[in-house]
Amino acid sequence: MFSFKSLSLFILLTTVFSPVNSHAEDADFISEGGRLYDKWWQEIGLKKPATTHPSYPSAGRQKGANTWRCKECHGWDYLGDKGAYASGSHFTGIRGISDSAGRSIDEVMAILKNKTHRYDEVMLDYGLLRLSAFVSSGQVDIRHYFRPDSNKVIGNILNGKKRYNQSCKECHGSQGLKRNFGSRNKPEYMGTLANKNPWEAMHKLRNGHPDAFVMGDPMPHMLGKINLQQQLDLLAYLQTLPPAK
To answer: What is the CATH number of the domain that holds 212?
Structure first.
């Protein structure tokens, strides 16, 4: 369906010689799969889809390329219609991927290649292997780490601030206002995202942002570098940052 000319020979050779399960516990391998879950064409330099995914339900409100993003149907919390996407503009009625956590990479790849998902039509095994590893080993359920009746994360803010100053401050600034993820009219900063959509913030915190071929300065992942509690501490601190200038 789409052109693969933008993929290098290195990627093709890596696909051929990478054993399916050899990277199942590799943080770099899994986090790349997390970025593919976010926006696969941006992560590995493929052509952006021009059509709506053929399996996207008619009840959904999205169209075009966004319907090809895994997160669009299964959510940033991986819970689909049982999570944050149970209602609102991203509702599709599709279940999440949490049931696939722990499955073998081979099993997940078979699902990605079936007639519903069709990702083998747009992505080589290089990407499918990494995406499958993420689905199998990269998911985290943070539902029990929120304060009652709020989107505020339970974490040690002081520890999170120390981590932020060590790992995030240089690129995002002392107040998280150095990089605008939104537009001039609708700015979105670290504090905006962490409060509005803490599940997306956690996903990107753990896996990085899929911009390696776009911005040339990809956001590094925290998976395997700090543990879950430290990730939650960092997210709790991000929620204290101002939402806008």
So the answer is: 1.10.760
